[in-house]
Design a protein that fits this description.
The chain is an alpha/beta fold. The chain folds into 2 domains: about 250 residues, Alkaline Phosphatase, subunit A; about 100 residues, Alpha-Beta Plaits (2-Layer Sandwich), CATH 3.30.70.1250. The protein is about 35% helix and about 20% strand. The protein contains 13 helices and 15 strands. The strands form 2 sheets. Strands 1, 2, 9, 10, 11, 12, 13, 14 and 15 form a 9-stranded mixed β-sheet that branches. Strands 3, 4, 5, 6, 7 and 8 form a 6-stranded mixed β-sheet that branches. Helix 5 crosses helix 7.
Amino acid sequence: MSKAFVCVLDGVGAGELPDAAAFGDVGTNTLLHTLERTGVALPNLGALGLGEAVGYPLGPARPDATFGRLLERAPGKDTTTGHWEMMGLVLDQAFPTYPNGFPPEVTEPFEAAVGRRVLGNKPASGTAIIEELGAEHVATGRPILYTSADSVFQLACHEEVVPVAQLYDWCLAARGLLSGRHGVGRVIARPFVGRPGAFERTRNRRDFSLPPPGPTYLDLLAGRGVPVVGVGKIGEIFTMRGIGESHHIESNGDGLQQSLDRLRALAHGFLFTNLVDFDMLYGHRNDVAGFAAGLAEVDRFVPEFVAALEPGDLLVFCADHGVDPTTEGYDHTREYSPLAALGLAGGRYDGLFADVGATVFERLVGERPPLAGSVIR
């Protein structure tokens, strides 16, 4: 009757992967560069080995901590690819991206479905394109469409011009159209409020992912009657497949508190959390100080997470990709995931993303994992 808690620090990569050059990400190391630039103290994460995972002196790891780096096999550096692989589903090709914007064969059916022409249709920073086109959107009601280096179809609309529920409906229409060779990883609703010169995105963001094309460890856990609880955007990433409960969060702090409350209440099962502020608020905006403050916020919760564990329970901190805030660009970076864990054999462990899901599966079911990944020993 043990439980497992995996907390994904979204975008907190641990150094360039061997193929980083193919992605333009040579020299990136989200975690190490943030630590070096800020010197933020993380005594509790340090005790779990987070510093030793990337070679930075955060203090010695406790003897029972397991730490290291995990390699992503799939050819991507996005949230969906990383989380799916973590749960045993390794993609053999990357989701499509659109460095020149979406072609007419995508935009024209979408415009017909929603009855309005789009604005933008180009790669852009979300805050920058709202500043650029927000006033025109407010005047015309035309949705702002943009993408990035990731496989995303993003729609930004002012909440007083296009109600949030209508924006979600438009995103669902786009999700239905974006399949096959245009099957982007995520369609994202990006509501905002305010007036020209002072527009602000709200917390009503919602992601509409492709359904996983094969089984994941979440499916297998649910099929064996193991409770699976998602916190943050976990439910959206897996389109609720294998997830019994999904809980929206307003911030990293809210996600940490909700995770702690549910960890204390969970007698048996899997608690799976995503903390997106590292990526959304800090990494994409090159906010190194904010990134460091976010790590310190997680650090403050670690003792309470540890206190909520019983013998046989598992605690894992990891990531899905990088988003190095010290680089010139604003996009995700092709990096290892850090590993900092309790409940395993102590010491260094370097493996694969999928080892996380395989380990959770074995711990909670007692069977040999049938999907990708090896059990962390």
